[in-house]
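[agent] plan:
  1. take the single chain provided in the ticket
  2. run structure prediction with default settings
  3. attach structure tokens to the ticket
  4. add a short note for the reviewer (M.T.)
[agent] executing step 1
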Amino acid sequence: MSIVVFGSINMDMIAQTPRFPQPGETITGTHFITLPGGKGANQAVATAKLGRCTYFVGRVGGDSLGRDLLKRLETFDINTQGVFIDKNTSSGVAMITVETSGENTIIVIPGANGNINESDVIRLEKILLKASLLLLQLEIPLKAVEIAAIEAKKLGITVMLDPAPAPEKIPDSLYPLIDIITPNQTEAAKLVGFPVSDTETIKKAAEELLQKGVKIVIIKLGQKGAFYATENEEGFVSPTVVKAIDTVGAGDGFNGGVAAALDRGLSLKEALKWGSVVGALTTTQEGAQTALPDLETVEQLIINN
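[agent] step 2 finished; step 3 output follows
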């Protein structure tokens, strides 16, 4: 069986700077690089580098960026037969600014990602017959995400949703289709409508998402680890301590780590440890896909911790 990722693929244009500029201010940065990204593609690379058979379904534009993005996925042995080349638009682009501290701001221009619709789900359906787990994010139209989740549930496939970037509201009909949801604190706050800032509100947010129909809630807490809750148990996951230089892609690494571990048949708690380790290691290098760790590196850190 395999992991199928249905989502976005972008080219990341990353500028490093001592600090973020104020509105109307021009400052001098220190470094610029162009790297492949997009939350969907990042998570596909994460699971592939962790040794899982991975399929990616999405869209690129009919430009040189699209060709480069597909070649990059294929270098990781990711199956891209489900990717449609949309010749009438540009590929997705993310403009990323990274401070010296490692914090970042991101502007996403969806391009071809924004045109994903039911025709893409038709391609997805055929690939889902080979899958055990479907990874979804929200950098593509929400309607397509919901239809994809419906088709996966019909086939008994585990659906894992990273609700990023979080919309103001997710349809109530989507929640019961989700087996695992993985918001960070900011995203969780948008989903439940109140601040998620301390132990009490973290637990309250998780409980509300469970009541909406989600089976497993995982709230990512950055340097503080993560919190998980199911109908029968809950708990905090300790962070993996590393020297972070760039937080871009850390959440995608976390999701990829959890998905890969579950696909290996590991328990939820073991999968959360994998997520913590992969997410942390991703912050130790620049970029997203280029920073995602391989299986050997992850297993070694797990053994040492």
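[agent] step 4 note for reviewer: The first strand starts at residue 2 and ends at 6.
[agent] ticket updated
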